[in-house]
Design brief:
Allows the formation of correctly charged Gln-tRNA(Gln) through the transamidation of misacylated Glu-tRNA(Gln) in the mitochondria. The reaction takes place in the presence of glutamine and ATP through an activated gamma-phospho-Glu-tRNA(Gln). By secondary structure, this protein is an alpha/beta fold. The protein has helices at 2-7, 20-34, 79-86, 131-138, 155-161, 195-205, 218-225, 249-264, 277-295, 316-327, 330-342, 352-369, 403-406, 411-416, 422-427, 445-449, 467-477, and strands spanning 14-16, 48-52, 90-95, 116-117, 123-124, 144-149, 164-167, 187-192, 235-239, 268-272, 390-394, 431-437, 455-462. The chain has a domain at 2-229 and 391-477: Amidase signature (AS) enzymes (Alpha-Beta Complex). Helix 9 crosses helix 11 and helix 9 packs across helix 12. The two termini are 23 Å apart. It binds glutamine.
Amino acid sequence: QLDNIVRHSSLNAVVATPNRASILAAAESADNASSGHDVDSRSPRGRVILVKDNICTTEFPTTAASSILKSFKSPYDATVVKLLQDAGALIAGKTNMDEFGMGSHNMHSYHGATKMSRVAGEERSAGGSSGGSALAVAMDQCWAALGTDTGGSVRLPAAYTGTVGFKPSYGLLSRWGVIAYANSLDTVGILGNSVDSVEGTFDAINAYDPQDPTSLPLSTRSRLGQRKTSSSSLKIGIPLEYNISTLSPAVREAWKRSMRQLQERGHSLHTVRLPATQHALSAYYVLAPAEASSNLARYDGVRYGSRAEGIDGTPESVLYAKTRGEGFGSEVQRRILLGAFTLSAQAIDNYFIQAQKVRRLVQQDFDRVLRVPNTLVESSTEIKDEGVDVLLCPTAPTLAPQLSELQNQDPLQAYVNDVFTVPASLAGLPAISVPVDVAEQSRQPELKAQGIQESAGMQIIGQYGDDKAVLDVARELM
Ligand code: GLN
């Protein structure tokens, strides 16, 4: 895998790698750590793991793919990085992303775009914003990779690259040392080639962290643990609102295949309605930029960020404007403007407040159709008779688009890719994307990444805290 990092460097999935001496030293200590242990397909011990460039590491720079952080090196490791190191993983580098996590095709990066090469010579989108992590997994440059998912940034790249991408319930994984985009939505996520590697990585980092104020406290974690696991025959919900007219035929075909597969495994299918889904995307694109505009205020060239050159001694307002104008890319600037507008006195009632109401409706939709109670709003842990265990729907409306088609695309077109991933984000629910073959084929991730095999991402969404059920159903689809 370390050789693959070098061999496939033209794909631009990995943006920082350690020097050879530290790789050898780390590999040796990982070897020592694993000797005497049985090789466990789920354990990150001795495994190569890559980390998205918005997660702080002391060994590598942390730029969030932004020019404003081009010379930033964190003085501390993020909790999730530390936990992986404690578990014996080899953190071998940083992966490319859309600047500050804003984007769906990994094209808005200070490091240049991530490019998924296809056999026909056409380059396709690896998805965003964790496109580097997903492609690195697909190209076997690592055993697993960390990403972040605010509105789909782990699941969408997983769908486009034919890998597994998991966004756990909000608050389970620590965000200490993760550069904030939209705090109420930001979740660390995991990409891998199998549900086992994803689950093993998740288990190693799923811990309460007193340094993250949104980390789920131990008392709530133990309540989640008390939930009775349901039988081997599950009720799978098929949300009708996801069957949109613009769904590509290949994705619809893969959706039907996965329904059949789960039925053959003894599960039953039930159509459900989630009416607020149609407003979820608009609500997300009000709330996420609003939080981002506030978060990104700190990068002013004084407290944080690289200052624009030749302006020392000028009034502060000039210093800020020039630093931020040069340091942020166009998409980030658009989000800051959008967020500042929707939070302004004349717009807040019509935008921000309405979007918060839609967010609540989206949460209520899920709680209504899922039979597992939402522990955050209900005291009971009893599973209801009515309702379904998990939901099955596509991750994205289409397969990975060609980069050439995206060059002059309207930003709104990119936002539309997130239509199926943002509802689970707004509700904080666990969701995973698994690759399902579009046609009958064998499974080889590396071939898939080169376009020799085509797969569509299918998403399993579960109730808050029901992460294990989501992972179990995902395993049955692989
Ligand atoms: N594409 C979405 C956005 O640009 C999702 C990003 C994410 O999950 N980080 O906001």
